[in-house]
Design a protein that fits this description.
Rossmann fold, elongated, 5-stranded antiparallel sheet, 400 residues, alpha/beta, Argininosuccinate synthetase, chain A, domain 2
Length: 400
């Protein structure tokens, strides 16, 4: 039996690798996706080799450009946030990982794929829905739903009894469960399990605190083409480099921290903290360029799509026909979302201070409070108001 394992090199997936061999007599192929967490990538290769995985069965891939260009950017064209706050940094990474898992499985003629997501979380759903959507006959092995190793102590005992190499010399272990990629870092567990407890200052890995951010504001100009940022301060950049630079600028100015309680798809509430500096800037800037270039009714209709679109991503339905249908409409709306947005970054805030576009629908001659030179006849508003008030007046007269 051959199994392709989504492998990080950490405690859980190292034990899963051994468990798959022990339980299924499996030949394990490991897959590690570099989505912007480079400090984890090469250690994963070394650990897989130490676990006896042949080099030909170790797949480590730099997917940063594909991740941002084909997943993050389409999501941000919709101004996507889940439950009004969460920018979906973990959620949007899972469909790409699922895609590569099933593709590598096909390359190796593997019988199954496996992952280290627990039976309580959203990721098990996201990985498996994605896999089944792309390879309906694939077999999925989810050890956390099958084994009896349900605590860190039992995992450590399993590792010790089987001489599984677990690195123990990294200093004090973080109490948080973390996930990192180019879009964000997430934190769960530890003191965050009490929703009343403030996240400790030392938890945050990427952003400076707003209180410690520079006293001088940072201004940046962002250039959009069909809803995507293509340049920063006039310098053309790839999608991944755009997000990388925005992360650095945002993090230095204390931007993108978030502390929320969210509703997981599996039915429970979960408290999480997030750092999404670049994404926070992208969202504000994209809404600003849309405010200038989108027709009112298109913009309002598109906003009604967003909560549903966000739920689809959060719940693992990226590869569903309904998400693809919505994406066609969203992308169609972005044809004229072109131009520049100037943002000011200051102590945790992102302020839009300028926007311009050759495709702008803003007409200064109509909008001005000065003499409008006949561009707008204010007397026309009388009939407009009377017609729109007709039903209200009739209702009031009938009901007294």
């Amino acid at each position: 039996m051959k199994v392709v394992l989504a492998y990080s090199g950490g405690l859980d997936t190292s034990i899963i690798l051994h468990w798959l061999r022990e339980t299924y007599d499996a030949e394990v192929i490991t897959f590690t996706a570099d989505l912007g967490q480079p400090e984890e990538v090469e250690p994963a290769r070394a650990k897989a080799l130490a676990m006896g995985v042949p080099a030909a069965n170790i797949h480590i891939e730099d997917l940063r450009e594909e991740f941002v260009g084909d997943f993050v950017y389409p999501m941000f064209r919709a101004n996507t946030i889940y439950e009004g706050e969460y920018l979906l940094g973990t959620s949007i990474a899972r469909p790409l990982i699922a895609k590569r898992l099933v593709e590598i499985a096909a390359e190796h003629q593997a019988d199954a794929i496996s992952h280290g997501a627990t039976g309580k979380g959203n990721d098990q759903v996201r990985f498996e829905l994605g896999a089944y959507a792309l390879a309906p006959d694939i077999k999925v092995i989810a050890p956390w739903r099958l084994w009896d190793l349900n605590s860190r102590e039992s995992l450590m005992a399993y590792a010790a009894s089987r001489d599984i190499p677990i690195e123990m010399s990294r200093g004090t272990r973080s109490p948080f469960s973390m996930d990192a990629n180019l879009l964000h870092i997430s934190y769960e567990g530890g003191p965050l399990e009490d929703p009343w407890t403030e996240p400790p200052a030392e938890m945050w890995r990427h952003t400076v605190s707003p209180e410690q951010a520079p006293n001088q504001a940072t201004y940046i100009d962002l250039s959009f083409v069909q809803g995507d940022i293509v340049a920063i301060n006039g310098e053309l950049l790839s999608a991944a480099l755009v997000l990388t630079q925005l992360n650095e600028l945002g993090a230095a100015n204390g931007i993108g921290r978030l502390d929320i309680v969210e509703n997981r798809y599996v039915g429970m509430k979960s408290r999480g903290a997030y750092e999404t500096p670049g994404g926070t800037i992208m969202l504000r800037a994209h809404r600003a360029i849309e405010s200038l270039t989108l027709d009112r009714e298109v913009a309002h209709l598109k906003d009604t799509f967003m909560p549903r679109y966000a739920e689809l991503i959060y719940n693992g339905y990226w590869w569903s026909p309904e998400r693809e249908m919505l994406q066609v409409a969203i992308d169609h709306s972005q044809r004229f979302v072109n131009g520049e947005v100037r943002v000011k970054l200051y102590k945790g805030n992102v302020d839009v201070v300028g926007r311009r576009s050759d495709d702008s629908l803003f007409d200064q001659k109509v909008a001005t409070f000065d003499e409008d030179e006949g561009a707008y006849d204010q007397a026309d508003a009388h009939g407009f108001i009377k017609l729109n008030a007709l039903r209200l007046r009739n209702l009031a007269q009938k009901r007294g």
